[in-house]
Design a protein that fits this description.
This protein is of the alpha+beta class. The termini are far apart. About 12% of the residues have low confidence.
Length: 180
């Protein structure tokens, strides 16, 4: 069975890569490929064309996966990046900080030792997410407007070029007719 030293919801420090030194929370973990998604780390911008008449194209931001060996758990008690030790606490196996000995799984276990359901995001987090979404829509709209203006300019240029070519062809024909 594949397992990772980190779990969803852990706060981690990125050890390697372009986002080295950033601290974030794990959003998703994939034990089979040993990869994790960390909040605000390895953001990928994909340029997408509109596929249908009603769809908008633009830049879409997503969070990519990084290898789990490139992250280290940050202890909630001592706020230090730490390796993990495993100890039995109240008959349950738990992950423990190597520096201070505090349990890293305390927040996720209730009094009976069962896992709690993930807490809902705080209201402040929701406001931040909404604030981030609104500017992106404006940017996408501006990108679409710029694209429309460019296509109009290109179309106008093509029609002007066609008119010039047609005018030149007509002049050549006029010149050829008197010679015959």
């Amino acid at each position: 069975m594949n397992s990772l030293h980190v779990k969803r919801g852990d706060t981690v420090l990125v050890l390697a890569g372009k986002d080295k030194g950033k601290i974030g929370r794990i959003l998703a973990a994939d034990p089979s490929s040993h990869r994790v998604q960390v909040e605000n780390v390895n953001t990928i911008i994909r340029h997408q064309k509109p596929r249908g008449a009603g769809e908008q194209g633009g830049r879409i931001e997503a969070i990519g996966f990084i290898d789990s060996s490139n992250v280290m758990v940050v202890c909630g008690a001592c706020s230090k990046p730490t390796r993990i030790a495993h100890k039995e606490i109240d008959g349950k196996k738990a992950r423990v900080c190597k520096h201070c000995g505090a349990s890293l799984d305390v927040n996720k276990l209730d009094k009976k030792g069962k896992k709690k359901k993930d807490d809902k995001p705080k209201k402040t987090e929701k406001k931040v997410e909404k604030a981030e979404v609104k500017p992106e829509k404006k940017v996408e709209a501006k990108v679409v407007e710029k694209a429309d203006k460019k296509t109009e300019k290109v179309a106008a240029k093509k029609t002007d070029d066609k008119k010039k070519v047609d005018d030149k062809k007509a002049e050549k024909k006029k010149e050829e007719k008197p010679k015959k």
